[in-house]
Amino acid sequence: MPDRAKADPFERKLARYAETIVHVGLALKPKQQLIITAPIDSMPLVRAVTRAAYEAGCSYVMPVIDDDIVKQIRYRHGSKKSFDVAPAWFYEGMGVALRAGAAHLTISGSDPFMLNGEDEDAIARGTKALREASVPAMRVTQQLLTNWSVVACATPGWAKAVFPELGDADALERLWEAIFAAARVDNDDPIAAWKAHNAALHARVKMLNRKNCAALHFRGPGTDLRVGLAEGHRWCGGAERMKNGVVCNPNLPTEEVFTMPHAMKVEGYVRATRPLSYQNTLIENIAVRFEGGRIVHARATRGEEVLHSLLASDPGASRLGEVALVPHASPISQSGILFFNTLFDENAASHIAIGSPYPHCLRGIEKMNAGEMIACGVNDSRIHLDWMIGSGEVDVDAIAASGVAEPLMRAGEWIN
Amino acid sequence: MPDRAKADPFERKLARYAETIVHVGLALKPKQQLIITAPIDSMPLVRAVTRAAYEAGCSYVMPVIDDDIVKQIRYRHGSKKSFDVAPAWFYEGMGVALRAGAAHLTISGSDPFMLNGEDEDAIARGTKALREASVPAMRVTQQLLTNWSVVACATPGWAKAVFPELGDADALERLWEAIFAAARVDNDDPIAAWKAHNAALHARVKMLNRKNCAALHFRGPGTDLRVGLAEGHRWCGGAERMKNGVVCNPNLPTEEVFTMPHAMKVEGYVRATRPLSYQNTLIENIAVRFEGGRIVHARATRGEEVLHSLLASDPGASRLGEVALVPHASPISQSGILFFNTLFDENAASHIAIGSPYPHCLRGIEKMNAGEMIACGVNDSRIHLDWMIGSGEVDVDAIAASGVAEPLMRAGEWIN
Questions:
Q1: Distance from C-alpha of A65 to C-alpha of B65, rounded to nearest angstrom
Q2: Chain centroid, CA A184 distance in Å
């Protein structure tokens, strides 16, 4: 590791990013263990985070390194019969570690197009098996039992997907610039910048919670969607207190405020405003229709098989688990970059997610039985997949319990 | 990517090596899962093995990638209080997977000097914690419950340690040549070459089992060591049948025949003939004295703290678990290369190992109780560490139960 004072500007910024991840994203406690899941091309960031974590008193950093090429080799040379197999032992162990107090960092940065051109059915089965195997680990973070964060690392494959017109080095540099900017690492004091940004998100959350509306109404090109909200829903956004008492930022960057939709009360149609990359597969031009909360019709011009497989995962996979509002003025949206990465694209536009909700988006959920949860509109699923429905052309109204509509966003921006 | 015309012969040899690993080393069965533990610089081999494994019908390849730099960062920036922490959850999960039928490949190729210069006490504690945490996985392979293999991959760090006088690219090429040669991949038909080599090792095993001697006597510079053998010991070497019925080669390369020493009947002194690298730390010029089977005095000119910590791991760590004979004419010895890697160096010279024995080196051990095992001379320990004691200057005699000595090796070579 180079000495920090002598390090070049990139290394200094990388170190500052790593410290922001450890102190703002994870809010890692002394003596806490840390599991990092990361793609192999993100090793510079993995090592920088490892250093920042140990400097913060971490007791053990366990990187779990994923290789896109190994994945690709499977779909090209594996037996078709084998795609339903996944390493459950690993995620069970990870669930044990997280419940015992370890923190979890996910570094996102895979090539979003890596598996394009491979057999869609094989990928659908492979990702389903992996998704189901990973439930024991995913449940822990979704229930906020421990502090966790998802952040991004620029990698050659991802950079090339985002900036196909640039040379490799330039593309990588541009993507790093966008990541550093979104993570407020350009700022001399990123930790203070995050404090201010979290305060702004918390103020927006407070406003929406005071309003306590019954539904949101999205209107725009190809979209006329009424999303009923769960009874007793709670808006969230920015830093969040986990069940272990740690206040962390589960996503870096984050520009959204979000809450729990009512699983049975979503009506109308919606067109995705950005493509999304799920497990290295691009899903493009999603258009769906809801009836009684359920997606009854779904199309995509690309990755449709993967989308259909996702929707068929379980009964809750075709109902909503999250609705989130992001202004079109969000710095990530204003960068004008299409990232093909949910962590970024979902913070550039209002979005919905099919599948499981975040339990902390409902007041008093701890004391409810299954029947009470269903009555409030809580969805249940093993999947959680965000997709973007907001843009500068989309309006959002808040609908009160009385049925009265009040403008919340116009042309993608907050009214107040 | 290097120029295709130049790259092709290497890629072809790498693919042949990967196939040899899958079919000879692991003898992977269709539908079997495979866990690969490997250093990050070995990805070209990890990917080649992954492909060969899927082509052989493997159902899931799970690479577990280790990064030396992450390790180094820990010793430089971690809290001293934290070095006793290890990710037990991971090895417990791996033990579960191996018991459930997964095969295990270890790719060796770390920089043997990576941690030189770091705090020896910290490394001793860190490696001890890791060793103890890894017991659930290690036990499965040591008891031969599933098929497994240890193989090597040339990496820049290791190549530089072995060939410090060469440029980076030349060093890497030389090390690959040595690895390919030792794995018999130079041969047009490596699988046939391994069949012949396994037959030769099995013939030597048969000869020694017929002899059924009571002890081995090693004499050479700084060495006069009598190693009593366990009552009912069995010589092994080459391909071995695992408990799951698969006949595999647990080491590629392998040139040794080995058996179980008597834990209480080792007397005299011995000087290591090669340095050894344990968990990225070099231990040099080991010299020890045995009394009643136990090491009562141990020195090393380098890495002595790590050695002492190893010997103090548990009561069996200072007694022998393995003794192995390798002729000085072994192709690995004749390469004249000092590999600083046990997989290679132990196949260049006769050696002993402290710690746990291989249970299959004792006849009828399955039916014995603890008292019977102790009476036969079976050692018990959580560690297993080989070190080299043979050379062209070392003689070995077989001592019959009657006390009569018969020459086995002279100047490092088999008598017949």
A1: 6
A2: 18
Q: Name the 3-class secondary structure at B403.
A: coil
Number of A–B residue contacts, CB under 8 Å? 131
Query: Nearest-CA neighbor of B67 among B111, B34, B105, B106?
Result: B111
In CATH, the number for domain B2-182 is 3.40.1830.10
Among A65, A125, A130, the strongest candidate for a mutation testing the B interface, having the largest count of B CBs within 10 A, is A65
Domain boundaries, chain A: 2-182, 190-414
Chain B residue whose CA is closest to A32: B82
- Measured torsion, CA atoms of residues B255, B261, B263, B267, in degrees rounded to the nearest 10: -100
Report angle CA B68, A96, B37 to the nearest 5 degrees. 30
The count of other CB atoms within 10 Å of the CB of residue B7 is: 12
DSSP letter at A361?
A: G
Spell out the per-residue pLDDT of chain B, length 416, in tens.
344 444 588 999 999 999 999 999 999 999 999 999 999 999 999 999 999 999 999 999 999 999 999 999 999 999 988 999 999 999 999 999 999 999 999 999 998 888 888 888 888 899 889 989 999 999 999 889 999 999 999 999 999 999 999 999 999 999 999 999 999 998 889 999 999 999 999 999 999 999 999 999 999 999 999 999 999 999 999 999 999 999 999 999 999 999 999 999 999 999 999 988 787 778 999 999 999 999 999 999 998 988 998 999 899 999 999 999 999 999 899 998 999 998 999 999 999 999 999 999 999 998 999 999 999 999 999 888 999 999 999 999 999 999 999 999 999 999 97
* Chain A residues whose beta carbon lies within 8 Å of the beta carbon of residue B81: 31, 59
Q: Which of A70, A85, A93 minimises the CB distance to B90? A: A93
A117-152: b or e for each residue (b if 16 or more CB lie within 10 Å)?
A: ebebebbbbbbbbbbbbbbbbbbbbbebbbbbbbbb
- Tokens 């760090």 locate to B157
Least CB–CB distance from B40: residue in A50, A65, A73: A65
Query: Is beta strand B103-108 parallel, antiparallel or unpaired with respect to B33-39?
Result: parallel
A111: tokens are 């090539």
Spell out which residues of chain B touch residue A89, defining contact as CB-CB under 8 Å: 93-94, 96-97, 100
List Cα–Cα distances, A15 to A48, A52, B88, in angstroms: 6, 8, 29
The answer to whether the CB of A17 falls within 8 A of the CB of A183 is yes
Determine which helix (DSSP H) or strand (DSSP E) holds B156, and give its type and residue range.
Answer: helix B156-162
Q: Note the Cα A382 to chain centre separation in Å.
A: 15
The dihedral sign for the CA sequence B400, B405, B407, B408: positive
Q: How close A249 comes to chain B (CA, Å)?
A: 24
Q: Token match 């009569």: residue?
A: B404
Cα torsion for A42, A48, A53, A55, to the nearest 10°?
A: 170
Residues 6 or more apart whose Cβ sits within 8 Å of residue B301:
B284, B285
Are B74 and A54 in contact (CB < 8 Å)?
yes
User: Residue B253, preceding bond cis, omega within 30 degrees?
Assistant: yes
8 Å CB contact of B70 and A47:
yes
Give, for A105, the enclosing helix (H) or strand (E). strand A103-108
Provide, as residue numbers in chain A, all residues whose Cβ is less than 8 Å from the Cβ of B130.
none
Question: Beta strand B281-283 with B276-278: parallel, antiparallel or unpaired?
Answer: antiparallel
Nearest CA in chain A to B126: A60
Report yes or no: A156 at the B interface, CB cutoff 8 Å.
no
Q: Quick check: helix, strand or coil at residue B183?
A: coil
B:241-260 residues touching chain A, CB 8 A cutoff: none
Distance between CA atoms of B220 and A285, rounded to whole angstroms? 77
Nearest 10 degrees: Cα torsion A33, A39, A44, A46 = -10
ipTM of the complex: 0.88
The pTM assigned to this predicted structure is 0.89
Which region holds residue B56: left if phi is over 0, alpha if psi is between -120 and 50, else beta? alpha
